[in-house]
Amino acid sequence: MRKLKILYTSDVHGYLFPTDYASTDVLPQGLFKLEAAFRPDGNTLIIDGGDMLQGSPFAAYIAREKPRPHPCAQAMNLGGYQYVALGNHDFNMGLEALGAYLQDLNAICLCCNIRDRAGKLPIRPWAVHVLENGLRVGLVGACTPFVRRWEKPETVAQLEIDEPVSAVRRALKALPAVDVKVLVYHGGFERDLQSGALLSATGENQACEFCREFDFDVLLAGHQHIPVESADICGTHAVQPASNGKCFACVEAEMEEGRPPQVISRLLPPAPTPLKSAFKALQPIETAVQAWLDRPAGHLDVPLVAQNPLERAINGSLLANFVNAVQLWASGAEISACSLPNEFKGMGENVTVRDVVSTYVYANTLKVLRITGRDLRAYVERTAAYFAVENGRVAVSSRFLRPKVEHYNYDFFSGMDYVIDLRRPEGSRVAALRRHGREIAADEELLLCVNSYRASGTGGYDMLPALPLEKDIQQDVSELIIRYIEEKRDISVDRHGYLTVILPDAQAGDGRSRL
Questions:
Q1: What percent of the chain is modeled with pLDDT above 90?
Q2: What is the pTM of this model?
Q3: pLDDT of 451 over the 90 cut
Q4: What is the Cβ-side half-sphere exposure of residue 8, based on CA atoms within 13 angstroms?
């Protein structure tokens, strides 16, 4: 009997050290603590599923300073990684940054459906790895094609992006005979893993389709940040670890002649202490990151605290007002819309860089779109679908919670007063859209500032990609926030209540939002 062990991480998002950067506390997370828990041998593969280069203050600092060798590549080399897939966020910093990471990486990068047109990036569609025991493992990599929707146009123009299903089919056809077939897929599950019910048909996540269409023995998923172990989908064993280095998947397969592999998996926690060699090698950069984060930026007249997602969706958010104020300042638009992360630190009155990059965690830029009142109403209707009314009580719609928690797909608007009436059926909840005290006409045109993620239409906002683009602001929003605070220094936060949510009769008081 021959055995294979796979140690698998995904969606680390630059969290190498055991911290979340919101404070200096040592936490049970981070790549270095995962690597310290690895126990590889000659029949072990160490694999990452992508989204390594964006998402943490550490990653933001690396993108800003561009040290070489690339710290994330250093960290993975010291951890013994042999294969990596590409995640959508690995393209956020452009192909030069991605190339630096891949060139400094010892591991082989697998992605069958995305490649650079110039052919400079060391990306392979598939590989065969022969273990010490002679077992031949075939590996195919794939990434969600939504890279073409989310990335900057100049980055997308340099890429060839194929649909994953057809690309995987070609890779499998080219793959020579192997004993075990593994798909490393930066994408998640589009169906409920218990009932099989379809949760999303957008094509962003296609793991279940891969399991139906192909005969992979193991599917290593990512992207959704949902911990999944020991799932069986049409005979394929599937796993997905949590994000930010909180756990890793240990997949073990046994092979007997003439029988399919017997596969089990577990999600395992980090070790108590980080991998010493990696921690020591990267400590100088971490020290520089911490000094950068503690740099004072400016002063707010009120703290911008995290709130319960449903409460802020009903009552409005001073933090959203502040982000929208920055977007209006940077863009010159008339209306701004923004969303807030599922989890974030918030900002105190004395703001540091740490506060900003731990609160606005996305690598978004800004776009100014020309929108009509008609499309604006459709936009707000989509965000109003965030609310579910159950037995007269308001809750978050399951469509924003499954298969992935998506509080970040609820948008807040500034520059207009708007009313969402939850006594009305979904699709007709927008009771008013007003600017300067008058209703916005259906054919009236306005300039709307949104981030690049939302402008792509992701989150069900299909009315946005077709709108005329008036301005493309190629600066990260977090950098714009830092610049705004540093230039203004003492800031009075916009306290205007743009949003009014009218609650169902069972909950109604005066129905007013309160900031």
A1: 83
A2: 0.82
A3: yes
A4: 31
200, two tokens: 């999303």
Q: Which residue has the tokens 């299909």?
A: 462
Which residue's entry shows tokens 């009236």?
A: 444
512 has a pLDDT exceeding 80: no
> Using CA atoms, how far apart are residues 21 and 24, in angstroms rounded to an integer?
6
Cα separation, 402 vs 496, in Å, equals 32
Contact 424, 431 (CB under 8 A): yes
pLDDT band, very low/low/confident/very high, at 506 (cuts 50, 70, 90): low
Residue position matching structure tokens 């991998």: 275
Angle at which helix 71-78 crosses helix 276-293, to 10 degrees, equals 160
On whether the CB atoms of residues 304 and 372 are closer than 8 A, the answer is no
β strands within 64-173, DSSP E: 83-85, 108-110, 114-116, 123-124, 126-130, 136-143, 159-161
Q: At 386, list the tokens.
A: 């965030």
DSSP character string of 397-419: -GGGTSSS--GGGSEEEESSEEE
Reported as a single tens digit per residue, the pLDDT across 286-317 is 999 999 999 989 999 999 998 899 999 999 99
Let me know how long the chain is. 515
Does residue 163 carry a pLDDT above 60?
Answer: yes
* C-alpha pair distances (Å), 273 with each of 14, 147, 269: 18, 35, 12
Residue 93 sits at φ, ψ, to 5 deg, of -90, 5
Burial class of residue 130, CB neighbours in 10 A (0-12, 13-18, 19+): exposed
Distance CA 300, CA 426 (A): 37
Cα-based distances in Å from 285 to 31, 38, 194, 243, 409: 15, 24, 44, 22, 34
Q: Smallest Cα–Cα separation from 410: which of 303, 305, 307, 314?
A: 314
Q: What was the pLDDT predicted at 508?
A: 55
Q: Which domains does the chain have, with CATH numbers?
A: 2-289 (3.60.21.10), 296-502 (3.90.780.10)
Mean of the per-residue pLDDT values of the chain: 94
The order of strands in the sheet holding 490-491 is: 350-352, 296-300, 490-491
Check: CB of residue 206 under 8 Å from CB of residue 165.
yes
- Does the bond joining 227 to the residue before it have cis omega, within 30 degrees of 0? no
The pLDDT, as a whole number, for residue 363 is: 74
Q: DSSP readout, 129-153?
A: EE-TT--EEEEEEEE-TTHHHHS-H
| Nearest CA among 158, 171, 210 for reference residue 188 | 210
Handedness of CA 178, 184, 190, 194 (dihedral sign): positive
pLDDT, tens digit, 9 for 90 and up, residues 16-55 = 999 988 888 899 999 999 999 999 999 999 999 999 999 8
